[in-house]
Amino acid sequence: MNRIDGEQMGTEAFSVRSDSKKVKQLDRLAKQQDRSRNYLVNQAIDSLLELHAWQLERVKEGIKAADEGRFVSDADMGRIFSKYENT
């Protein structure tokens, strides 16, 4: 059983529809890594959930900073943008 936040949890089956090309790519990758399709899909789901949780926290931090009046000055933003003008 897996654990999330210290709690045991079981598994649950569900179906996913995808185009044939993606399924073939997934199967090739699974074979190359000596893993199951299910393992790779679960890894992808974990990555997606972690990414979205991370993004949500950064957004909340940004909103809190804005509510507190913490902004980057126009001069600082100008220096940041000027670093990338010729790239």
Name the descriptors:
87 residues, mainly alpha, two-stranded antiparallel sheet, 7% strand
List the helices and strands and how they pair.
Layout: E1 2-4, E2 7-9, H1 20-33, H2 37-67, H3 74-83
Antiparallel strand pairs: 1-2
Number of domains: 1
Contiguous low-pLDDT stretches (5 residues minimum) are none
Mean pLDDT: 92
Biggest beta-sheet profile = 2 strands, antiparallel
- The percentage of residues in β strands lies in 5-15%
Total DSSP helices: 3
- Terminal CA distance reads 49 Å
The helix content, as a percent range, equals 55-70%
Any idea what the radius of gyration is? 21 Å
Spatial ordering of strands, largest sheet:
1-2
Give a short overview:
It contains three helices and two strands, in the order ββααα. It is mostly helical and 87 residues long. The chain has one domain.
Description:
Helices cover 63% and strands 7% of the residues. It contains three helices and two strands. The protein has helices at residues 20-33, 37-67, 74-83, and strands spanning 2-4, 7-9. The protein has a two-stranded antiparallel ribbon. Helix 1 crosses helix 2. The chain is elongated, with a radius of gyration of 21 Å. The protein starts with a strand and ends with a helix.
